[in-house]
């Protein structure tokens, strides 16, 4: 359900869905439950929340709920997120003078409780197509008082998901035109957000970030944090357009030729962790990329194809296909061909543990697995090869899909994302792809092999590169441990 807002509203009405309609007049505060879009700037959900608060002359607060468990996130993902939130919290309080409440536990409990205690009239949330998030929102709608309204704002996609398409799209070719047609309307600059008119009354929270982060990081230590990607909104903008190593400023030129070369990871934008945690808006990335399109038309067009069409297609799939992470979510032709070949003889069969430990007979695959486990971001080209080999080396497609999602979500810094579920579904179940020449095990699912990789890039060079990368990471970790031990001994 979409609403029509007054024409003076800064957020296009198509971005907003009313999940629950309460009283027409806001008497209590507005609460923005931040989930997927963890940033101050360029955030349509926050802009809408502030706008609604100002129109009703009521204050606004931001709430964030830290789940005890969300899709198996470990220190790597949670540390990155919380360190980003710590910076964000400081900035929100300083520049917007809006309080930031951090709750721990289940959002279906903490958010309605906060609404009740603060007497809030409106809850604004950002949008995620993932089923858990949607079901919490449905629950929250039932748990709050009749007078409370709930608005959901798509602050993640450039063209709001439900505006781009009202159905499950078959592939990039069927959604591309729909999105492109709407870009002039939606790919616009953002307004600057100033402090709201009304100040929050009542106690403002203080979060013990240091203890919280150290607790979360030690609980999730099985997958440690990474050091190469600085979290936060400023670092994200730096990665996009900073003068030292910014993608658009220093690395864009060869994007279309280098993006499929795993030996040139800097040829990619490296933005996926920031986009996943909403520390940067895809709309900001696209807006800035368009500014340099005259100079690098081919590179910008390829980048926008990934950033807009492929990324928003992934959200479309997860939103309109409830079985987005299951073979049942594949098209009929793909399910049939996979099932027809389930009993084909496999050259190798590996267990989940063997795969996780990179113990296969294929050094290229092992290198990609180790890149993900230790570095936290496997190169985009290798992700396709990696998932397809899991299909080839496990008992059947159901197991292959489950293992690939498990590993992807556990180790990738950008994991637990619609693009991850769709990446695994594309590789193993042929979604957003077509049927290819039938062959053993794969049936009509697109095949990739070692020889093909060898023709495309320097396979031995990539294996050597990952070996050095992992060696350096282990060495640094060893040094960090020694430093910590020395600190302990000095009693610091
Ligand atoms: C098996 C498999 C698993 C994947 N898992 C994830 C994941 O967990 N999280 C994730 O964000 N992406 C995932 N991808 C998609 C893609 O590989 C990554 O988005 C990309 O490698 C991220 O690096 P980058 O930002 O440097 O890429 P760039 O090439 O610089 O791309 C810019 C942005 O475009 C988007 N994008 C790029 N390629 C794709 C794609 N194929 N599908 C959808 N969006 C894309 C991403 O948001 C990316 O950050 C997966 C792909 C496969 C095949």
Report the CATH superfamily of the largest domain: DNA Cyclobutane Dipyrimidine Photolyase, subunit A, domain 3
What compounds are bound to the protein?
Answer: flavin-adenine dinucleotide
Distance between termini? 57 Å
Largest sheet: 6 strands, mixed
Shape: globular
In percent, how helical is the residue content? 40-55%
Structural class: alpha/beta
How many E-type strands? Answer: 6
Order of helices and strands: EEHEHEHEHEHHHHHHHHHHHHHHHHH
CATH topology of the largest domain: DNA Cyclobutane Dipyrimidine Photolyase, subunit A, domain 3
CATH class of the largest domain: Mainly Alpha
Uncertain residue ranges: 1-7
Rounded to an integer in angstroms, the radius of gyration calculated over CA atoms is 23 Å
In terms of DSSP E residues, the strand content is 5-15%
Mean pLDDT: 95
> From the coordinates shown, what is the CATH architecture of the largest domain?
Orthogonal Bundle
Q: What's the tally of helices?
A: 21
Q: How many structural domains are formed by the residues?
A: 3
Main-sheet strand order equals 1-6-5-2-3-4
Cofactor: FAD
EC number: 4.1.99.3
Enzyme class: lyase
GO biological process, one term: UV protection
């Amino acid at each position: 359900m979409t609403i029509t807002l007054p024409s003076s509203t800064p957020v296009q009405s198509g971005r907003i869905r009313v999940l629950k309609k309460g009283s027409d007049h806001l008497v209590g505060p507005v609460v923005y439950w931040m989930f997927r879009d963890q940033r101050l700037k360029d955030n349509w959900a926050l802009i809408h929340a502030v706008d609604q608060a100002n129109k009703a002359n009521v204050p606004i607060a931001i709430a964030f709920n830290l789940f005890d468990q969300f899709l198996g996130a470990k220190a790597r993902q949670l540390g990155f997120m919380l360190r980003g939130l710590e910076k964000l919290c400081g900035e929100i309080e300083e520049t917007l003078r809006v309080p930031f409440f951090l709750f721990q536990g289940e959002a279906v409990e903490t958010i309605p409780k906060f609404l009740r205690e603060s007497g809030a009239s409106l809850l604004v949330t950002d949008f995620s197509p993932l089923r858990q998030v949607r079901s919490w929102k449905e629950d929250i709608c039932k748990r709050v008082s009749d007078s409370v309204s709930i608005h959901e704002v798509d602050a993640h996609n450039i063209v709001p998901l439900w505006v781009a398409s009202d159905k499950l799209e078959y592939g990039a070719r069927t959604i591309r035109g729909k999105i492109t047609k709407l870009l002039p309307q939606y790919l616009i600059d953002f307004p600057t957000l100033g402090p709201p008119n009304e100040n929050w009354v009542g106690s403002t929270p203080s979060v013990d970030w240091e203890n919280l982060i150290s607790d979360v990081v030690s609980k999730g230590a099985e997958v440690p944090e990474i050091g190469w990607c600085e979290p936060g909104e400023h670092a994200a903008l730096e990665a996009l357009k900073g003068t030292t190593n910014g993608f658009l400023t220093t690395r864009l030129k060869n994007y279309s030729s280098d993006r499929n070369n795993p030996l040139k990871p800097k040829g990619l934008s490296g933005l996926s962790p920031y986009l996943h945690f909403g520390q940067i808006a895809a709309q900001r990335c696209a807006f800035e990329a368009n500014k340099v399109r005259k100079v690098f038309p081919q590179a910008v067009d390829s980048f926008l194809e990934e950033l807009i069409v492929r990324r928003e297609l992934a959200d479309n799939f997860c939103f309109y296909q409830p079985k987005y992470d299951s073979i049942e979510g594949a098209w009929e032709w793909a399910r049939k061909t996979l099932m027809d070949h389930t009993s084909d003889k496999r050259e190798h069969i590996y267990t989940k543990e063997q795969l996780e430990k990179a113990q296969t007979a294929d050094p290229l695959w092992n290198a990609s697995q180790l890149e993900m486990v230790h570095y936290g971001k496997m190169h985009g080209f290798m992700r396709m090869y990696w998932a397809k080999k899991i299909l080839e080396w496990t008992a059947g497609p159901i197991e292959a899909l489950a293992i690939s999602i498990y590993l992807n979500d556990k180790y990738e810094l950008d994991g637990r994302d619609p693009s991850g579920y769709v990446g695994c579904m594309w590789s193993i179940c042929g979604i957003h792809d077509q049927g290819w020449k039938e062959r053993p095990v794969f049936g009509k699912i697109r095949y990739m092999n070692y020889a093909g990789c060898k023709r495309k890039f320097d396979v031995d060079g990539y294996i050597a590169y990952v070996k050095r990368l992992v060696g350096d990471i282990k060495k640094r970790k060893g040094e960090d441990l020694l430093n910590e031990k020395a600190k302990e001994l000095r009693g610091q």
